[in-house]
Amino acid sequence: MAAKDLPADEKEFMTLSQDEMEEMKTTFEAGNLEAVAKKLQEKLEMLDKIQIHIAVTGEAGSGKSTFVNAIRGLGDEDAGAAKTGEVETTVQPEPYPHPTLPNVTLWDLPRIGTPKFKADEYLEQVSSQKYDFFIILTANQFTTHHTQLAQEIQKMKKRFYYVRSQVDFGLQAEQKSRPSIYNEEGILQKIRNDCIENLRRGAGEPSPRVFLISSWELTKYDFHLLQQALEDDLDVEKRHAFILALPNISAQILEKKKAAFKREIWMLALLSGAISAVPVPGLSIIADIQILEVNMRRYCQAFGLDDTALLRLAQRVGKPVAELKSVIKAVPTASSINKEFVIRMLARPACLGVMIAEELLDLVPVAGPLLSGGVSFGSTFYMLKRFLNDAAEDAHRVLQKALS
Fold first, then answer.
1. How is the beta sheet containing 210-212 ordered, strand by strand?
2. Burial, 168: exposed, middle or buried (Cβ in 10 Å; 0-12, 13-18, 19+)?
3. Contacts of residue 22, Cβ cutoff 8 Å, sequence gap at least 6
4. Do 14 and 6 touch, CB atoms closer than 8 A?
């Protein structure tokens, strides 16, 4: 199938251009299978190395560090968490890599809003060119410091997002002070309108967009809208990495991750097929085991099905970790996935027939390796797709148990 014939959602995550697809097809037809395998391997490695740098800034007390932790799926006391506290703790840009995707980094920037603050000097100080976009946080109202910073960011042709944090505290205060007339939707709309009006006056923006969030409850308020805005504004490959780095806080995020991984599988299967077609005894099975092991572990880590992530989740929701693990039915945790596990899976009856056929085809002179590639493609595609579906189902069960 040509790239132009793919459905829109599949084409979106194609990592090979039309020209690259045609070049690979020509190379394959010429019998240079090692070159095909090398090209695919390079593309897959490039995907793993795509860098995303997210800058988070705001005045003291805006919740920058807590936001940095929350979007990485960490609590403030977890290992690797950004330091938080009443006293401003960030004096220079601090990088915080994602716990399982180190190519995605959030930067906790020094506070703004001091009497000596100058937006242009601040951006120079924090090496602003390296960031893909800026999150501008406030826990109260946006001021001229925020709008001046936004204007300087805009001059650099970078994207920025206004985020009103800690809205849960404002709601709690309203509920305590005016319980008889408390209306959550009305209060949220008032907060949003006040922020927008301040930005219109301060920056002259006709229709600024403000996202209301609580870093303690990302499933509420506008986090899903902020998440979608960030996805929409990233290019295809960075969007792919960003989705995989999102915290597993909703069924929608789990489904986005599943879809992102699914769109990778055809390349992994094609790599398996290309390697299998190279006439080197034993190379195919070694490569298949490695492809399956690495990617099955990736799926489990991205879905939070590893011991560290499950322990963090259990502590956050106040449940025994054993209770969360009890609903994992189809796949092991990431630490249990190794070569022996993959070999046991390959030995199952459904896969054994495919492998035997592959070994027999390898004995057929000339045509055998090419036919073997087709079998290896199919078996890798089948096993990864099935494991991905199982891991996603287990992740949904863990999420339901955590929220129950």
1. 94-97, 104-108, 52-58, 133-138, 159-164, 210-212
2. middle
3. none
4. yes
- Altogether, the residues listed in the chain come to a count of 404
**DSSP codes, 57-87:** EEBTTS-HHHHHHHHTT--TTSTTPPP--SS
CB atoms within 10 A of CB 360: 13
pLDDT in tens, the chain (404 residues): 334 443 344 444 445 555 655 665 666 555 566 676 677 777 777 777 889 999 999 988 888 999 999 999 888 888 888 887 655 555 788 999 998 888 999 999 988 888 778 888 889 888 888 999 999 999 888 888 898 899 899 888 999 999 999 988 888 888 888 888 878 888 888 888 888 888 887 666 777 889 999 988 888 899 999 999 999 999 888 898 899 999 999 999 999 999 999 888 877 877 777 666 555 544 456 777 888 888 899 999 999 999 999 998 998 888 999 999 999 999 998 888 888 888 787 766 555 555 545 554 444 443 444 444 555 677 788 888 889 999 999 999 999 999 88
Give the separation between CA 3 and CA 16, rounded to whole angstroms: 9
- Strand pairing partners for 54? 106, 133
The secondary structure of residue 72, as a DSSP letter, is T
Tokens (6 digits) for 124: 């120079």
Task: Report the C-alpha gap between 99 and 106 in whole angstroms.
Answer: 11
Gyration radius (Cα) of the chain, Å: 25
CA separation for the pair 368, 243 (Å, rounded): 40
Q: In whole angstroms, what is the distance from residue 99 CA to residue 105 CA?
A: 10
Which position has the token pair 């927008």?
Answer: 196
Structure tokens at 6: 């793919």
Q: Are 163 and 226 in contact (CB under 8 A)?
A: yes
Could you tell me which of 98, 88, 44, 28 has the C-alpha nearest to residue 64? 88
pTM, two decimals, is 0.81
In whole angstroms, give the CA distance from residue 317 to residue 178. Answer: 29
- DSSP-derived letter for residue 13 is T
The angle at the Cα of 133, spanning 256 to 234, to the nearest 5 degrees, equals: 40
Planar angle of CA 239, 251, 220, nearest 5 degrees = 90
